[in-house]
Amino acid sequence: MTDQLNLSKTRQEIDALCDLYNQSPCDENARPIYGKMSAIAAAYRAGQNQGTFVSPEDRYQQDVFAGVIKIPEVDALEFTAEKLASAILFHGALIVRGLFDSDAVDFLMEGVRYAEKLELYDDKDSYAQLHLLKLYQVYKSSGLLGVMNEYQGGQAVMMAERARINRRLTDPSLVHFGLPWHQDMPFFGRKSFAVNCWSALTDCGGDNIGLRIVPRRLDRAIGWDHEGPAALDYGAVSREEIMKTVQQGKNVIPVFKAGDAILFDELTLHGTKRPKYDFGVRYTASTWFFHWSNSPERSIPLGF
Ligand SMILES: O=C(O)CCC(=O)C(=O)O
Ligand SMILES: [Fe+2]
Fold it and tell me: Helix (H, G, I), strand (E, B), or coil: what is residue 69?
């Protein structure tokens, strides 16, 4: 048995190091924090504080939103794991209004502007990892991390590769805009009750670029009968079958204010909505959370 990690001390150290990182957000100050977050995830995998995974499906059987036809919504103050479970398991998603307050949105956008000035983003306008530590802090202070732990029924982890801030610009020259209809399960390789917290950092939906989503519980990955994880090219699944489900499911395009979030799992069908007019810019944050025992192979789980 390896030495036990002092989990509460490590969590305190992470928060102290985040204060330092906020004063000087450079790689040198970020690296030790990632090291500690990885160590927390590794400690659980090594058997420390283990508990078996009991799926949300087995723990939450009541639909507190029975009768709601589209996507259930709550205000941030009413956001609980029980509501999240009802909404995801029976309706495909939950909208949380005002999950992040304006200070939190400014805190994230400040980092975005800084990165833009230094041209740090990559060619796909995805700020992968660059803002992960800012996201962690906003997720913690908003109460999201506590809800994630409770929904998962044990310690949750963030998948480092899928914790990011995205910028999307409309571009009339693009035939394919944004991401087509998809479920994320094929990329993770199996059903894992992962939750994506997708949040708007600028107003979106309506006339601006949006997120379209089928408000329905799906219990399998449509058109995906392969073994193991899919490449992230969004092309491997049967478009025909997906379109059939989209049409049956009466998809919706919610309107979001900056700070609103939508949470859904890897079986929910969703994609980017091209706006009616080809103008606009949309900033969003999105992060996938897993129970520590369910994070995909070959991914980097970060504990907290
Ligand atoms: O932001 C979008 O338009 C799509 C995002 C998405 O597919 C995801 O976060 O899993
Ligand atoms: Fe997705």
Answer: coil
